[in-house]
Amino acid sequence: MSKRDYYEILEISRTATDQEIKSSYRKLALKYHPDRNPGDRTAEEKFKEAAEAYAILSDGDKRARYDRFGHAGVGGGPQGFDPSQFSGFEDIFGGLGDIFGFGGGNRRSGPQRGADLRYDLEIKFEQAAKGVETHVQIPRQETCETCNGNGAAPGTSPTTCPQCRGTGQLRYQQGFFTVARTCGQCRGNGKVISKPCAACHGSGTVERTKKLTVKIPAGIATGQRLRLAGDGEAGTHGGPHGDLYVVIFVREHEFFQRDGNHLHCTVPLPLTTLALGADIKVPGIDGEHTVKVPESTQTGTTFRLRGKGMPDVSGRGHGDLLVTVQAVTPKKLTKDQRTLLEQLAATLPDTTVKPSVRDEDAERGIFDKVKDIFG
To answer: What is the pLDDT of residues 100-117, one digit of tens each?
Structure first.
């Protein structure tokens, strides 16, 4: 049977960052770990499959070979894969014993910090330039008010697990070694709930939509993110909330092009304006600006207006506004306009291109040379 794609297994894109790979694997490992799904062969296989995918994609060299050659580039993946054997597994979960009871102390019965959340927010170019205060609706897990987060029905409370006596682990002696497994009765919590809360079904948290205010600073750019501390999901067993990260996407502007804090724009001008010179008005993010165009200005010339670009998101100054002037040729001339232009042309120097030639090339025209170049 063909192996599934590692990116598909971890439910991530092929451009996922190391942190996104790690986060997705952690979520799947917690969901499908055998201690949480005793006797469930499907969950056990998904757990091993996710661990195998992470072992490859978390390693830069292995990931590069996999991206190029697929499963063949990484030997098709190990058989009988043991997730506790590859480097990095313990780092992800802060110690195997802490999460799954593979040794060490157990922390699952203590407070656990809530998950961080991400929200992608699209804003207008003008909002990025001036800053804006907006509101977002975030669905998240919040502490159940009915049971105050302990998961037990009102009037009752969790009791110490009789099987592990509150440690969350069961230990077995095998020769010189002591093997620890997560307690199956309390699933490592050290507490059991005889009568679950009807509102949260014993989880201690419920999903609600929270309206939050987001203050976006002037000068923010696409890809930058804002951290709202404590606005992520609720923790368990009295643990703190996680954080909310708002990732910004700025719409493109029809006139300005952004380069860091600098702004670029192109202004079309008549030939007469470039030739005679003039003071022109150009738009900016904070109103109109005057640009002095000297006479005999060539098309494509760029003028720099210092400090008239985007504000720095840290509040330290502004970028520049760079204005490029572009000559516009009339599409249709009146009889009088043509006469005037012909009179002007008669007074201007002859600008016909006359290529310099030497020796044997003297008899050859420019078009013959072009033919030779392009065959």
So the answer is: 434 344 444 567 888 899
